[in-house]
Amino acid sequence: MTDPIVRLMTEQDRVTVVELLADSDPWKRLGYRAKDWNSYFLPLSQGRDSFIMEDNGKVSGIAVVRQKFLLGDYLELFGMAAWARGKGLGRGLLAHIETLVFARTQNLFACVSDFNEHGRHFYEKQGYQEIGPMPNLLIQGSAEILLRKTSGSARINKN
Questions:
Q1: pLDDT confidence of residue 155
Q2: CATH number, span 5-150
Q3: Which of 38, 54, 127, 157 has the fewest CB atoms within 10 Å, measured from its CB?
Q4: What is the DSSP letter of 151?
Q5: Which residues, at least 6 apart from 79, have a Cβ–Cβ distance to it below 8 Å?
């Protein structure tokens, strides 16, 4: 057994990542299918930083960060394989992302669906605060809730 690692996503990871996302909630409930994920990841770079978590040689999670969102960065996509949940791997992947983000900016934003109680609880345990809902953003009758974790104010007062 080896320790989990986080690395940049490569083209060779695309099929596995698409399967991981297409087979899991909240993505299925939001109507995302394999063809949507294939489009999202072609081409890979698209101005985003895409990271994979590997556990014993298997892709266990994906995180995609878009830099320069509001006064910070935005965790545009975060997903874990069903078999990897509840093992602390998601917490480890998110901690890795936060270390990178907070080295360059003070805020990390994310969204979570209002019906995704597990996701909301996960982010709350990691120190994210709910900023507010965006109704009907992805699907009718549901809201995406904007979250924020901060390491301090973005503007330094030099009085």
A1: 63
A2: 3.40.630.30
A3: 157
A4: S
A5: 20, 21, 24, 27, 61, 62
